[in-house]
Amino acid sequence: MDVNGIVVETGGYRAVTPWEDEKWRAQALGWITERLARHRLTVGGDQVWARLRPWSVVLRVPLTDGGAVWFKANPPRSSYEPAVMAALHRWVPGRVVEPVAVDTARAWSLLPDAGPMFTEVLTNDPEDLAAWAEMLTQYAQLQREVEPHANKLLALGVPDFRPQRLVERYRCLVESAGSLRDEERRTLHAAAPRFEEWCQRLADSPVACSLDQSDLHPASVLTGGRALTASGALADGGRYLFFDWGDSSVTHPFASLLVVGRVLDERFDRDPAARTRAWDAYLDAWAEGGTGLAELRSLAEVACRVAAVCRADTWDRVFPSMLLTTADRDAHIARWLRELL
Question: Which GO terms fall under molecular function for this chain's record (predicted)?
Answer without folding.
Answer: transferase activity
